[in-house]
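About this split. The held-out portion is used to measure sequence recovery: a designer receives only the structure tokens and must propose an amino acid at every position. Recovery is the fraction of positions where the proposal matches the reference. Here is one held-out target exactly as it appears in the evaluation file.
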């Protein structure tokens, strides 16, 4: 988790921290995969600038997390950050091998829609309707997952993908 040390803590920063907690990050000292915790490393960047971030704010938000001050401009603290992350990996406190991290909003949305289709496919099953009704939502879930794998791509999807990239001029 990276904070800009040259800026004061904002409501949005607090909201992000709260969202991470609801996702299981930084709760206790357990190891991911046991259902108890996902480790957080707090990085206060721009250590080379005048610090506006209250000194205790990161510790108040993440009392059990290691905190590393860095400057990507000067390189200050980067070796310490690398060592901190390596120690967490070696201690087994990083994402479990079966954990999934989805960073693309487009992929998150596709997974959400696929899940909705899968849930909807259960309704005809529970009502004892013919499997043709089940197959409609199963096919929709499959097609939605295809948006992630590249097996299916509508014009709208292609427009969204290419709007995120600047392709040569």
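Reference sequence for scoring:
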């Amino acid at each position: 988790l990276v904070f800009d040390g040259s800026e004061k803590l904002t409501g949005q920063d607090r909201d992000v921290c709260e969202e991470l907690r609801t996702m299981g990050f930084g709760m206790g000292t357990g190891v991911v995969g046991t259902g108890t915790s996902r480790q957080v490393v707090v990085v206060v960047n721009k250590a080379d600038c005048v610090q506006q971030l209250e000194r205790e704010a990161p510790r108040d938000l993440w009392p059990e997390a290691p905190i590393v001050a860095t400057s990507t401009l000067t390189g200050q603290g980067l070796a310490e950050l690398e060592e901190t992350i390596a120690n967490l990996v070696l201690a087994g406190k990083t994402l479990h091998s079966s954990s999934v991290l989805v960073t693309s909003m487009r992929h998150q949305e596709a997974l959400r829609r696929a899940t909705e289709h899968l849930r909807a496919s259960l309704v005809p099953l529970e009502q004892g309707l013919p499997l043709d009704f089940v197959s409609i939502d199963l096919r929709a879930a499959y097609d939605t997952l295809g948006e992630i794998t590249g097996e299916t791509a509508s014009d709208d999807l292609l427009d969204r993908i290419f709007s995120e990239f600047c392709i040569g001029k």
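Annotator remark: The beta strands are 2-4, 42-45, 67-69.
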